[in-house]
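User: We ran a pulldown and think these components assemble together. Before we commit to crystallization trials, I'd like a predicted model of the whole complex to look at. Sequences follow.
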Amino acid sequence: MSIAGRDAQRQTAVGQLTQSEQAPAGVDPATPSPARMYDYMLSGKHNFQSDRDAVERFRAQLPDLGDAAWANRAFHQRAARWLAAERGIRQFIDLGSGLPIQGNTHEIVQAVAPAARVVYVDHDPMLLAYADELLTADGSTAVIQADLRDPGSLLSAPGLRALIDFDEPAGLNDQAGRVVTHVGSWWAEDPAAADSDGSRALYCGVARRP
Ligand SMILES: C[S@@+](CC[C@H](N)C(=O)[O-])C[C@H]1O[C@@H](n2cnc3c(N)ncnc32)[C@H](O)[C@@H]1O
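Assistant: Here's a predicted model for the assembly, 210 residues in total across the polymer chains.
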């Protein structure tokens, strides 16, 4: 299929997301998901009515919710760009990546380092349903559906090993979802060790002011 045809098909699919019966296989549109809720907060189109309703319930209690999401996304992009431009990182593992949206990690880092590789990881099945929005023609990106509570499944995923050289420094993103906080600290038990070979771990979370 031509790129124009694929884009036209995608536009149709995106437009149908308001109709729950058009949910991709494996996706329950009636149950809000964090990835889709975050997508809605960022004005994305990979979300359903249940996600929008859930966000609006949160927003009624936390009026700054949208600003926080945008601030996080901006940090994510600034930090990833800095790692590529200033620290020479050429491979990134985006944990809890969320769904495709403008300014995806590979678009940010490849703007300053065209050879950079990015592996997107999320447990939300919507990630795979729209993976083609993150995959590049030159194979510099991969998309893996994995639950970080089962790190072995991620570490053994062929897509990860194909793009990430564990003998080279890597950038490890964990942002907004506080994935590490929620699922345990399997990779962060010794944060200093993550830096020892030039690798960097980016972390961003939300905190309530006392
Ligand atoms: C708020 S979004 C963050 C999106 C993106 N990292 C950013 O900063 O813009 C948090 C993501 O973490 C994912 N997530 C939460 N728990 C997870 C788990 N156990 N395994 C994999 N992904 C998880 C959610 O599906 C969601 O997409």
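The two ends are 55 Å apart (CA to CA). That may be worth checking against your pulldown data before setting up trials.

User: Thanks, that helps.
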